[in-house]
Design brief:
The complex is a heterodimer of chains A (about 400) and B (about 80).
Chain A: E1 8-10, H1 25-33, E2 36-40, E3 46-50, H2 53-61, E4 65-66, H3 81-87, H4 98-103, H5 112-137, E5 143-144, H6 145-150, H7 152-162, H8 169-179, H9 186-209, H10 215-220, H11 227-258, H12 260-263, H13 272-283, E6 290-294, E7 298-300, E8 303-305, E9 310-313, H14 315-318, H15 358-375, E10 380-381, E11 403-405
Parallel strand pairs in A: 1-2, 3-9
Antiparallel strand pairs in A: 2-3, 4-6, 5-11, 6-9, 7-8, 10-11
Helix pairs in contact in A: 5-7, 5-15, 7-11, 8-9, 9-11, 11-15, 13-15
Chain B: E1 3-8, H1 18-22, E2 27-29, E3 36-38, H2 48-57, E4 63-68
The chains are: A alpha+beta (about 400), B alpha+beta (about 80).
The structure holds protoporphyrin IX containing FE and iron/sulfur cluster (SF4).
Chain lengths: ~400, ~80
């Protein structure tokens, strides 16, 4: 129950530098007062912070909460993004039936069996990235694991799938980061979005006449899509497809280097998928919450949410909900246990917008982490942990760089 | 003997693949439309727990599990 004395959480909240792997303490404190509490967005407008597991699942799967960011009161962490998203919504921020129409054009590419077929190719990309990192760093390092491994692996994979030349990465990696930071100037974000849309639009136009065996070519040769729809789907897949997995690889590596006793579990192929679920749960890289707008009055966790209220579904606290993951009485305690039954986590969201790329993200993480620790058993940090740069301002949490030796 | 049956509402499926990853013997994704298909609607006992979990994890609420404890209904 939310009472008048309950705290109002200012979002986005700051991380605790003492425990950089945990969500900001303000969110766990809010969670300890109840599953739904009050929060304030950067522009001063109120919004609900939904922190309980069941309540988060309800917000993300109940049609009374809309993901359509063109609705006037839709909650935004940076006001400058409102117009941008409204002008070019990808299906991430649309409701059904518009959302389903566009999502279904690409679901075939991310089916579990398609991703299973990609495993040998992903393994090769992982091995080659490691070969290059080892060649550059010498027999013992150092190297930046983010720039040399965590970022190239998912970038190469999504480029191949989409049909985007990897040589153009400087342009789209920098622009992707700008789209995902809360601290950039609104004009820079607008320019980054325009450049990405233009880039993918031009690429799609070329593929109309010279199609290849890739997603963009397939979308480009459909008659029921506008060039703008193709471009915004392309930007969504490109950005969501590399920044997320890259951040998970970097953060997981840094966390595992703190827990050498756990790393041994990755040597057992049967334990790897479960280990990745636990890392996804614990690190919940979508730290800032998933926004929705109530379109009808809803009673949620003992609180009445009115039509027109903004809501933030906090995946990180849901993933620590008391008792659900064998964590009774340990709300907010961040013990990593690679053998934990963690499959109920909501790190990929829930409802019709649940991550389309999840089979791919899982395969990439399983292959990248198992291969990294197998090939470099002596992997360790090259700087004291206090010096690691955590990207606390990013919408997707991660490390700016990760200096390592081996 | 207790029995378990599983049903899917295909129009609620959003192709997350969670069910296929959880119990590949029971669920698959159709090549043509990417939506769920049930391979085996009468679930064998060793898969009961996994199928319950798959229903719980389905983001679209597309999976229904019916269990009877075998107390009265004839199979
Ligand atoms: C570990 C990595 C990843 C995490 C934690 C993650 C997380 C998420 C979350 C939480 C959502 C739901 C957002 C919402 O409901 O508003 C989402 C949606 C999405 N993700 Fe991922 N993601 C990851 C990797 C990927 C990859 C590799 C792709 C590949 C293309 C991808 C593509 C998408 C797309 C297209 C959507 C929008 C789905 C829709 O709106 O229907 N993601 N992701
Ligand atoms: S878990 Fe549900 S939504 Fe996902 S593929 Fe299976 S039936 Fe479809």
């Amino acid at each position: 129950m939310s009472t008048p004395t309950a705290p109002v959480t200012m979002i986005p909240a700051r991380h605790d530098t003492a425990c950089p792997f945990a969500p900001p303490p303000a969110y766990t404190e809010a969670a300890s007062t109840g599953p739904v509490s009050r929060a304030e967005l950067p522009d001063g407008s109120p919004c609900w912070l939904v922190t309980g597991y069941q309540e988060v699942r309800t917000v993300l799967s109940d049609r009374r909460f809309s993901a359509d960011a063109r609705r006037p009161a839709f909650p935004f962490l940076t006001e400058g993004r409102r117009e941008l998203v409204a002008a070019n919504p990808s299906f991430l921020r649309l409701d059904d039936p518009e959302h389903a129409r566009l999502r279904r054009m690409v679901t075939g590419d991310f089916l579990v069996k398609r991703v299973e077929e990609m495993r040998p190719g992903i393994q090769q990309i992982v091995d080659e990235a490691l070969d290059r990192m080892i060649a550059r760093g010498g027999p013992a390092g150092p190297a930046d694991l983010v720039a040399d491994f965590a970022l190239p692996v998912p970038s190469l994979v999504i480029c191949l799938l989409l049909g985007v030349p990897y040589e153009d990465r400087e342009e789209f990696q920098a622009n992707s980061r700008l789209l995902l930071t809360t601290e950039a100037d609104d004009r820079d974000v607008a320019r980054a979005q325009e450049e990405l849309l233009d880039y993918l639009g031009r690429l799609a136009e070329r593929k109309r006449t010279e199609p290849g065996e890739d997603i963009l070519s397939r979308l480009a040769t459909r008659e029921d899509l506008t060039l703008r729809e193709i471009a915004s789907t392309g930007v969504l897949l490109l950005v969501a497809g590399h920044e997320t997995t890259a951040n998970m690889i970097g953060l997981s590596t840094a966390l595992l280097l703190r827990h050498p006793e756990q790393v041994a579990r990755l040597a057992d192929p049967a334990a790897v998928p479960g280990a990745v679920e636990e890392l996804l749960r614990l690190l919940t890289i979508v730290h800032t919450g998933v926004p929705r707008l109530a379109v009808e009055d809803v009673e949620l966790g003992g609180t009445l949410i009115r039509a027109g209220d903004g809501v933030m579904a906090m995946l990180s606290t849901a993933n620590r909900d008391d008792g659900l993951f064998g964590t009774e009485g340990h709300l907010g305690v961040d013990e990593v246990d690679l053998d934990r039954e963690a499959r109920r986590h909501v790190s990929f969201g829930f409802g019709v917008h649940q991550c389309l790329g999840q089979p791919l993200a899982r395969a990439e993480l399983q292959i990248a982490l198992a291969t990294l620790f197998r090939r470099l058993p002596g992997l360790r940090l090259a700087v004291p942990e206090e010096e690691l740069e955590f990207r606390t301002e990013a919408l997707i949490y991660g490390l700016g760089s990760l200096p390592v030796r081996w | 003997m207790s029995a378990m049956h599983v049903n899917v509402e295909r129009d609620r499926c959003c192709s997350s693949g969670q069910c296929v990853m959880t119990v590949p013997e029971i669920f698959e994704q159709d090549d043509q439309d990417g939506l769920v298909r049930v391979l085996l609607s009468a679930v064998p006992a060793p898969r009961f727990a996994d199928v319950r979990l798959a229903a719980e994890l389905c983001p679209g609420g597309a999976i229904t599990v019916t269990e009877d404890d075998g107390a009265g209904t004839a199979a």
